[in-house]
Amino acid sequence: MVILNLLLIIIVFAIVIIFIMAVQQPDEFRVTRDIMIDGSPDDVFDHINNLKRQHEWSPWVEMDPDAHYEFDGPEEGEGAIIHWKGDKTGVGKMTIVESNPSKLIRSQLDFQKPMQATNIAEFILEKEGNKTHVTSRMVGPNKFMGKVFGVFMNMQKICGDQFEKGLQNLKAKVEA
């Protein structure tokens, strides 16, 4: 009985510690990566603003090549949509909500599975000489379950690695 009580106290203590750590997590998460690409902002923009072209270098397509993808709306720019359903990538859609030529592409990501979430993804393009500085960023609310997840998993590492891979793939496409 003493061992059972001790075990119960340890479990309750662990839950309290996890709860305290979770509530201290920020209310918003942000993952950002950047890269310099040899090419003009116009060249880079063309590979991002068109979802079929974006599909060619996406690290998520590479990660889940058997996923089902469907395009909707215009082929590029505001209103362009890609839907996906895959074993590794889950279920969701991405809609370009802002397209500022050679400067910014902002998309809304609506994840349905494995968890429901709505985030904003951005590509920011800045001309630097004959190169383009590209910043890839995702921002979203960090609700309680996300905060608990954040106690155990590093979103910067998980998503950041994919962002870096995507930027490297984009760089290879533009510079080819």
Give a quick set of tags describing it.
176 residues, alpha+beta, Alpha-D-Glucose-1,6-Bisphosphate, Chain A, domain 4, 7-stranded antiparallel sheet, 6 helices, 7 strands, 41% helix, 38% strand, elongated
What's the topology here?
Blueprint: H1 2-23, E1 28-38, H2 41-49, H3 51-57, H4 59-63, E2 68-72, E3 81-86, E4 90-100, E5 104-113, E6 117-128, E7 131-141, H5 144-152, H6 155-175
Antiparallel strand pairs: 1-7, 2-3, 3-4, 4-5, 5-6, 6-7
What's the shape?
A: elongated
Q: Tell me the number of helical segments per DSSP (H or I, 4 or more residues long).
A: 6
Side by side, the strands of the main sheet go 1-7-6-5-4-3-2
Give the helices and strands as they follow along the chain. Answer: HEHHHEEEEEEHH
Average residue-wise pLDDT: 89
- Count of folded domains: 1
Could you describe the 3D structure shown?
The chain is of the alpha+beta class and 176 residues long. It has a single domain, classed as Alpha-D-Glucose-1,6-Bisphosphate, Chain A, domain 4 (2-Layer Sandwich), CATH 3.30.530.20. Helix content is 41%, strand content 38%. The protein is built from 6 helices and 7 strands. It has helices at residues 2-23, 41-49, 51-57, 59-63, 144-152, 155-175; strands spanning 28-38, 68-72, 81-86, 90-100, 104-113, 117-128, 131-141. The protein has a 7-stranded antiparallel β-sheet with strand order 1-7-6-5-4-3-2. The protein starts with a helix and ends with a helix.
